[in-house]
Write a structure and sequence with these properties.
646 residues, elongated, eight-stranded antiparallel beta sheet
Amino acid sequence: MSYLKFEKALMTNLQDSLPKELLRTNRSGAYSCSTIVDCNSRKYHGLLVVPVPELDDENHVLLSSLDVTVIQHGAEFNLGLHKYQGNNFSPKGHKYIREFDCDRVPTTLYRVGGVILRKEVVFQHHVDRILIRYTLVDAHSATTLRFRPFLAFRSVRQFTHENGNASREYFATDNGIKTCMYAGYPDLYMQFSKKNEFIFQPDWYRGVEYTKEQERGYASNEDLYVPGYFEMDIKKGESIVFSASTSEIKTRTLKTLFEEEVDSRSPRDNFFHCLINAAHQFHIERPEGKYILAGYPWFKTRARDTFVALPGLTLSIEEIEYFDEVMKTAMKGLNEFMDDKPLSVKFYEIEQPDVPLWCAWALQQYAKEQGKDRCLEKYGKFLKKLILFVENNNHPNVKMDENGLLRIDGRKKAMTWMNSTSNGLPVVPRTGYVVELNALWYNTLCFCQSLAVIDNNESAAQHLEELAAKVKQSFLDTFLNEYGYLYDYVDGKYVDWSVRPNMIFPVAFDYSPLDQDQKKKVLDFCTRELLTPKGLRSLSPKSSGYNPIYVGPQHQRDLAYHQGTAWPWLGGFYMEACLKLYKRTRLSFLERQMVGYEDEMSYHCIGTISELFDGNPPYSGRGAISFAMNVGEILRALELLEKYKY
């Protein structure tokens, strides 16, 4: 039995099937995404969603969906599904689904009377092209297929509505047509592996509604343009391949291309393989370099997310080369930032105070996999520059005080990963001395000191050792409280007593200012008050302002974003801390913790991990449907578990 397989009972019950989403991507950042019953429930959903750099740095929905109609003896059976205003679903093609399997490629099996039709979907790796293969598995009489494309040609952040500016012009191509609704957009090529007839029958389908946008309090409906339909006969046992792309293809190659793409896919037949598949979906390749996308469907290539996710997404699955390629791009951006030059790479939020230190942490993980000598040879000079940049107070958003601690101003602009805002101001105004920033600083100093020792640079080693000792004492004096846990941030005489997960980092890092007893007390607090099956809560239920359910309009969600929701990537550091303190005695406990993540493979966006989860049962997945830091940290935690087993 396939690992990701859903039977008829679930597929035909929209209450169960509509919340499950499916994501396919390629290396340009383009993607194909919908629910497993092909009913779009977000404005971000679409069959072909591509970047259009000539317009902006957003993705754009060109082809929203493709309805397929089976025709026999003059009777028509439409397999499509759309939600319209008034909670009306039409044409309810999901009732013909017999099973859905996503082991290697998404495969849907439909049954209409005596007709059995199989649909398989792949997204071409290095070209913005969606490929769909339709195979007539069984039929007792002559069968015709009709394909009706729904076009949007708009940004993922907008909607399209019926208007007179949309071009209805189209041109014949090899077994298909090309069309473009608006100036500035690329042509959309829709082609088949078989000769067909295109019937020009332009119309707008009005009032298509997106449930997820309704839930967020946004505008939620649009009109989609249908230029007409393609029609062709199909025989029992025959396969037809459909291609939608921004470039033309020779249609005689479509069947071979589809087979090649299928053969290159790794099976998603277990938890680990699903995570590897999800990890590869974050790979972005542009002319100027390679990146890690922070998440789908709306995130970009963010600096902090890159460094937190990178070790798990690459080193933990033995993809060292991609680590080096991404780090090469990141180093270019950081060097330009430190030299106060314009960025030549698309590395967002590089100005955040903790970014250089998370970069050093990522390189520290590289050193553990490849050896410190290799790390020193490849990245030693860059690490030295990072340290000096922070220590000499050249960073515009962080300053080192006389006591060695780093101080930030987060009152008017969020300066940490807890970055939600309300009315233009941070919901959690973490300012002054922030616990994870200074834990990162101490860890970085100690790591670089160890490299200086290997490099026989005695003066640098001594300086870093002395600075680290100062930071250690200041850290303990500042953050450790009488109850045994750590303040989240300290600003002058103000201390934040909230129990938050950021104190797990000094327990998990290789170099910590805490002793063993202090680490155990902090870990115990995290276990009692923050641990859930989906990671650590962003705030304890016992702390003021606990708001664990991430639902409702955007303003309401912003207030809950870091006030009790659970984050799997924090759970990765929690597991690392457990293993370092308790070794093999916590293995069975942590393996049970992994079950909570494996459950997500068949919920929400299947085969990957959502951005965050409600902090209270049933711990529903929320936010972005696939999040790089979560996938990366779970992969890294799995690797750590394996090392402690053997």
